[in-house]
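Hey,
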Amino acid sequence: MLRPASHLRDADPSAPHHLLLGPDTHGVTRYAGEVADAARAPVVRDVAELVPGAAVHLHLTDRLLGRDPRDAAAAVEQLARRVRLTVTLHDVPQPTDGPVFAARAEAYGRIVRASHAWATNSWHEHALVDRWIAAGARGTVIPLPVHATPGPAGPSRAVAGLVPAEPVVGVFGFVYPGKGHRQVVRAVAALRRAGTMASVRVLGDAAPGHADEVEALVRTSRERGVPVEVTGRVVEDDLVRALRDVSVGVTAHRNVSASGSLNSWIAAGRRPLVRDGSYAREMAALRPGTLNLFDDATLVPCLDAALRRPTSTWTSPSADLGPRLEETAAAYRAWWASVG
């Protein structure tokens, strides 16, 4: 649970106030609270509580600030006129956003220009800002941390080369267009035609406004003869078990920027199949041995290979999962000091 500023007795007065917007169940809000806690930064929930001229940090995605990206940009501009604002940009716009891309890119450009300093969670996102949002703008990059989960992790009763009788392919996170669920279903359909009676488990629920996407996914899966289970939102206490219970995990979204769902797989000890791209390659270099890359042409054989070699779907105990949250907080503190 995130602590309000009045309860953070050991807050460091040199750390900027963290403005948390949205419900704690939202990934960006939850992460903002974790960083604030680790950095000993005071937390504020209401803009009215901020003192004019104070140093304030905001983790943001435009969707937390309004349905219209222009409203989100206006809100940040207004805030930046009142306080000394630094921001971390999440869900950085890119062309695969579809019809909303232009409006989102313009809004993020306004946010970058209004802020005292800005950060992204990957060099991939930083490049998106430079290419599509604010050419020549320079921020900093502070990768998302991995919260490694203690306890045993690894394939149980697994025999290399022997595919389980009914393997389960897991996809974690909100369901929305471009997340990759349909491609995974098509790949599993191909496995079933070849004799591997796999199913798909969707660990998550529809993203707001996309309930029809779940209905369409179930319907098309049934037409392809692929059993699909949609669990709905997985509560935090059950998440590690859920991620460890599937045979292989897949992170297949096309418009990935920085992926909390990928980090969740890694934190649970899993080594998921991840769609190849600049962000995936960046994470593979940052944490060697924690993911396996695939592209559109290789998902089916990669799934087949993973099912035949279960150990390949788990990280080694010696794998470096950094940065940890404490290291991320230290990076933020150093950055805040440098832009002061």
